[in-house]
Amino acid sequence: MCGRFVMARAIGDLVAAAGAHTPDEQLELREDYNVAPTKDVAIVVERPVEATSETTGDNGGQVRREVHLAHWGLVPGWAKDLSFGSRTFNARSETVVTKPSFRAAVRSQRCAVPVDGYYEWKKLPGTTARGTQKKQPYYVSRKDGAPIFFAGLYEWWADPEIATDDPRRWVLSTTILTGASPEPGSSPEVLDELAGLHDRFPLPMNQLTMDHWLAPEKLTNADQAQALVDTVVAQAYDTAGDQWQMHPVSTAVGNVRNNGPELTKPVETQHLPGL
């Protein structure tokens, strides 16, 4: 799964890495080394535009790639309130096409969620002095320091408590797709490490896959949507295996109030408090 991540680069750097256009509006993207669900996060989307000098996409039409900010936790249009997103910050690839919360978005509202890296907790043998499961946090990132682009979905939700002519009425929200972690003994080594870290992992995309995933045309049926999801799943292990690295970090990451670059620094596991 993906429950905490890092996004600490300037908006201009993110736009360049995504191959997107400079946003028309002023986006405030603050450094955040402990992004948790319900926070605002960056997403990358493509939308069709009229024939101008824009780039021509694979769908044969004119598209514009953009960066926006979205509430992390997908809120479908039929949800009663924003709190719905507290349980939809991840979407399982195995059920995303059929689950009511996601099935509409996967056909027409796909995005990429860029991160500098993400945290995951590995269960260890034994319990702590307080009787809880021993766990070790790890930080997963790309070897070259470039952002990871996870497959995601987005939705617009209208807040019924806000006037219809108030632009704050509309909330953009997002979720990250997850898949089964690699099998133990997988190669390269980082895939074997991911296998022991958690039974789920967020699905990264290479450049070609992201181009297909972001294409804005609406898929007409569930079979088409499933085929596209399967494409993302099929390349995820290779993308992670070619690019990713991981190392243990301080348990301080477990408190969302802790926020700073020190959270991503490697530590010796035997020196961590509370293990």
Would you kindly provide a brief summary of this structure?
This protein has 275 residues and is an alpha+beta fold.
The portion of residues assigned to helices is 10-25%
Over the alpha carbons, how many angstroms does the gyration radius reach?
19 Å
Structural class designation: alpha+beta
How would you state the average pLDDT, rounded?
91
Uncertain runs with pLDDT below 50, 5 residues or more? 51-59, 270-275
InterPro entries: SRAP, SRAP-like
EC number: 3.4.-.-
Keywords: Covalent protein-DNA linkage, DNA damage, DNA-binding, Hydrolase, Lyase, Protease
Family: Belongs to the SOS response-associated peptidase family.
Please give a structural write-up.
- With 275 residues, the chain is of the alpha+beta class.
- Helix content is 19%, strand content 32%.
- The strands form two sheets. Strands 3, 4, 5, 6, 9, 10 and 11 form a seven-stranded mixed sheet that branches. A five-stranded antiparallel sheet has the order 2-1-7-8-12.
- A hairpin with a 5-residue loop joins strand 7 and strand 8.
- The radius of gyration is 19 Å and the shape is globular.
- The two termini are 22 Å apart.
